[in-house]
Amino acid sequence: MKGDMADIDAFLEKAVSIFRSILSDNLTGIYLHGSLAMGCFNPQKSDIDLILVVKNKLSKEELQLMTRHILLLDHDLTGSNGIELSIILESYAKEFAYPTPFEYHYSESHRERYQSEPGYLCGGFEDPDLAAHLTVIYYRGRTLWGVPIPELFKPVESIHYIQSILGDISEASKGIIDLPVYYSLNLCRVLLYLREGEVSSKQEGGEWGLRVLPSKYHAILRACLDDYMGQGNLSERDESRFIEFADCMQAEIKKAAKGSG
């Protein structure tokens, strides 16, 4: 796959057709969230984020069939981070529960096990991250097929969205050395939400940070944004500056979270 938007749209059409064929009348809808839904998708680095909503629980055979087809679809996304997909019951789209139970999950971190362990399935428990994903769907998502978003989903209470995004950056001071772009931009979008209530992408969070954060952090944020958009890389970086940035942002986030509570 070359990665231009025509290729991506063709990929989504193919995925929708496959999922509809497998799930048939049990499928309520297919929904896009993440960077592709919010207009900042980088085909070399981003993943394609999907939530499938079903009426009833799926059989083991249906889930294994889903896995086989997702692995084939994922193979078509050479150069990106592939697919991240969760399946939830319609009842939890209509009446949110935190943390949210899910029937099935596939992502890059599970790919190897799905490939190497016949019968492996990730599902049947709860995922606090779904509060963030469902919030993005409600405010910024796109219906690929099925019941329109406003007719199916209700807003996730802000307390649960905040719990979810705070959990995502809880290890930022340790993790920022290995994942500087991920944590730097996520820290910005968490603070943006806590201060202004805006559900944003990582790119939008970083751009906001450039406007409002102290100028001594602008070089870090510009480098991260350039890397995120495929216009540079962070192979050479001052690790101490990133740790300082993470510690500062964690302090500001803690202060803002108290204010929002």
TrEMBL record:
Entries under Gene3D superfamilies matching the protein: Beta Polymerase, domain 2
All residue ranges annotated as the Polymerase nucleotidyl transferase domain in the record: 16-61
InterPro entries in UniProt: AadA/Aad9, AadA_C, NT_sf, Polymerase_NTP_transf_dom
Keywords: Antibiotic resistance, ATP-binding, Nucleotide-binding, Nucleotidyltransferase, Transferase
One Pfam family recorded for the sequence: AadA_C
Domain called Adenylyltransferase AadA C-terminal: residue spans: 151-251
Signal peptide: none
Lineage: superkingdom: Bacteria
Reactions it catalyzes: spectinomycin + ATP = 9-O-adenylylspectinomycin + diphosphate
Protein's recorded name: Spectinomycin 9-adenylyltransferase
